[in-house]
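Bug #77: duplicate submission created two jobs. Keeping one. Sequence:
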Amino acid sequence: MMTHTKEKTALASIIRDRRAVKKKYNDKPVEAETVLDILEDAKYAPTHKLRQPWRFVFVDGARKEAFAKRVAATYPPERQANREKVLLEPSAFLIVIMDAPEEQKQWDENFGATACMIQNFWLLAWEQGLGAVWKTNSHIYNPEVRDLLGVRSDEKIVGFIHLGYFDNKPPTKNRIPAAEKFTMYK
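Kept job's structure:
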């Protein structure tokens, strides 16, 4: 098998350097203007027929505690304290919502485009020192959370992006070499 030895571009370095920042955020607030600025570039993800099937709800630090309590309250009583603690960890949230058409092909295209947009957002945030992690906890399927966020019946919550600045980069985790996942069609 061939080995890939060329020098890494800046983009390749950012892709390899990016980490999921799940905890240990510092006190620097995440501003709506920063998130919106990142989204202006992230929206250039591939999107079939330029549908751009996403929209966003931003929860800043001033609203985070009340929001965390409301989302945690949708869990069974014995899990609420833990869920609230987890939801209070990030400095802010970006909730990503996509159009969810009935036709499976369009649904798949929309999800693929939205996932690409989230990856663009994550890389651009990382480049600015803003940590992120894409969470798909069970509350994204809860009707009460959908109502809280104004999600329509023809939409899907794709995830909560937990956001916050950080002082220490999470450690690198090994990836399986691409060659081990690669075959040639015969």
